[in-house]
Design brief:
It contains three helices and 42 strands. By secondary structure, it is mostly beta strands. A hairpin with a 7-residue loop joins strand 20 and strand 21. The N terminus is likely disordered.
């Protein structure tokens, strides 16, 4: 049998090439990096162009360049697709969207996109002096910046930066993000002394002082730092006061354990700022912390194992009134084992790999455990205190329908372990959740792209972090969230990055008037229209918090 025709090799190659999709025609992107506060261009900023491929699309590697003297940047040979562009520069932070993610945009074939603006927020500076009551400089004083933040939906105060004064008593704290801060000054640290050392003279020390002259954080004057602001002349005038010792022992620690590094810390009550610290223990595990004036304090001890994580001990509260505190004992943190089961209502997912986390109210470190294939889990080192429950990574298509500790439903996400675990923790998943979709607009009616959206449960379920959902709007200002537990919600849209603040019901309540309310039914989809909560509104309402 003979072939009717033979296709020449070159013709075959041409046919194969013709069958392939034609090569795309790249475009380009031009823009400017500017100071968000002044609008001035920023030169030598590192600008990054990053592809945002959709489902099934092949992504392109990110590329970077530097802005020129006029703040301009240019990317050529940009393949068609969706992109985001961000920038970095010393003394600036990125303001566009959650975690600094700017709004996405599309580049079509042969499109020369211009006018892309990247706004960087200038960071602030605090400076001043620490002096005696006679205005003599105090060298080596510790100055700490404190700020309230939200962790696991709860507000906490902690130190964010610390510096020491120079020989002129001067201090300067750089690169502070806009926000409300408090300043704390403490005198130069005293060297470690052998246990039970007594001075031949009456002991004095500079007490922990909050700006401008308060002994308690509740009486301190807050300092509001605007973008790029330099708040100067923040001066302390410290006056020495009678000082006392805090003495005690760490149970189970001896001098033979030289591979361990121990640190003791004394903080003004409720501040967690590291005002007075001391490293190491005596040979018998005892300690002697001098130089503590009258007042209420939290005393903590941390045990660091080289190559491993810190081992914290429960902090202890002490009150000094004209006398030493003796006999303080640190014992290892009492712990309890939590066990439980994750069950599923209806069809069971192929993989049930859920992390159950407990964030303690007082201790520093959270704990958790991952469920086994049968849904069982154990948390072997939960602290015996109030803990906040967070259930992470439920399978796609499912939500947490209910949580029970024994026969009691946990509605607010709070578990009291102060008396141990008296019952198993049972978590029920379901797959009949609803969906919320919506659109966010700016004040002038334009799409608010790259905007963070928070969907938070209302009422008695407001503390349940597993019910809280987040989304980011696309270029048209649209968002879509699925696997929403049936119930009532408030929906918020934020113009700027607000970190973990929306996890807190206290923070969200400030903006209820700017939110939208929705009710989600079983397998239902609801739509909502939002106006973005502006940066000015966020700043103004935040100023009402401590």
């Amino acid at each position: 049998m003979r072939l009717a025709a033979i296709v020449p090799p070159l013709t075959l190659v041409a046919l194969l090439l013709r069958a392939q999709s034609p090569a795309s025609k790249p475009g380009s992107v031009d823009g400017t990096v500017v100071n968000s506060a002044t609008g001035e261009p920023i030169k030598k900023a590192s600008v990054r162009l990053e592809n945002q491929p959709g489902p099934g699309e092949k992504g392109h590697l990110p590329v970077t360049t530097l802005s020129d003297a006029s703040g301009r940047f240019h990317f050529d040979t940009v393949e068609p697709g969706s992109y985001v562009v961000g920038a970095q520069h010393d003394a600036y932070m990125n303001t566009q969207g959650r975690y600094g993610m700017p709004a996405p945009f599309q580049v079509a074939e042969e499109q020369h996109l211009s006018g892309v603006v990247v706004k960087l927020v200038p960071l602030g500076v605090l400076s001043g002096h620490v002096q005696t009551e006679n205005s003599d400089p105090i060298q080596g004083a510790h100055v700490t910046v404190l700020r309230y933040s939200y962790e696991s939906g709860r507000r906490r105060l902690g130190g964010t930066a610390q510096v020491q004064t120079n020989d002129l008593g001067e201090f300067e704290i750089l690169n502070l993000a806009p926000g409300r801060y408090y300043l704390q000054a403490a005198g130069p640290p005293l060297h470690n002394l052998p246990a039970h050392t007594r001075w031949t003279r009456h002991e004095e020390a500079y007490p922990i002082t909050f700006y401008p002259n308060a002994r308690q954080i509740s009486e301190a004057t807050p300092i509001d730092v605007a973008p790029g602001a330099h708040a100067s002349d923040l001066d302390f005038h410290l006056r020495k006061a009678p000082a006392y010792h805090i003495r005690g022992k760490v149970a189970g620690q001896t001098a033979s354990q030289q591979e361990f590094l121990d640190q003791l810390r004394v903080d003004a009550a409720g501040t967690n700022a590291g005002a007075i610290s001391q490293s190491g223990l005596q040979s018998d595990g005892s300690f002697d912390i001098p130089g503590v004036a009258n007042g209420s304090y939290d005393v903590s001890y941390t045990h660091l194992i080289i190559g491993k994580s810190d081992v914290p001990y429960p902090a202890q509260s002490v009150h000094i009134t004209d006398a030493d505190v003796n006999g303080l004992v640190f014992a290892e943190r009492p712990e309890v084992e939590i066990s439980g089961t994750i069950s599923v209502e209806g069809a069971r997912p192929n993989i049930l790999d859920i992390y159950v986390a407990l964030d303690p109210a007082k201790s520093i470190f959270g704990v958790g455990g991952t469920s086994a294939a049968d849904g069982s889990f154990q948390i072997k080192s939960a602290p015996m205190e109030i803990c906040y429950l967070d259930i992470r990574f439920p399978p796609e298509g499912y939500y947490v329908k209910s949580i029970h500790l024994g026969g009691r439903e946990i509605k607010d996400g709070e578990i009291d372990l102060t008396n141990g675990a008296s019952a198993p923790l049972n978590i029920l998943l379901a797959s009949d959740g609803g969906a919320i979709e919506g659109n966010v607009q700016t004040a002038d009616g334009q799409p608010s792209a790259g905007t963070e959206v928070t969907i938070a449960p209302s009422g008695e379920y407001g503390g349940r972090l597993d019910l809280l959902k987040r989304a980011t709007t696309d270029a048209a200002g649209n968002f879509h969230v699925k696997d929403v537990a049936p119930g009532d919600y408030r929906v918020y849209a934020w113009e700027i990055d607000v970190d973990q603040s929306p996890d807190s019901a206290e923070f969200r309540k400030l903006f209820d008037a700017k939110s939208a309310t929705v009710s989600v039914g079983l397998n239902a989809k609801v739509s909502v229209q939002l106006n973005v909560i502006t940066a000015d509104e966020i700043t103004r309402e935040r100023s009402k918090l401590p």
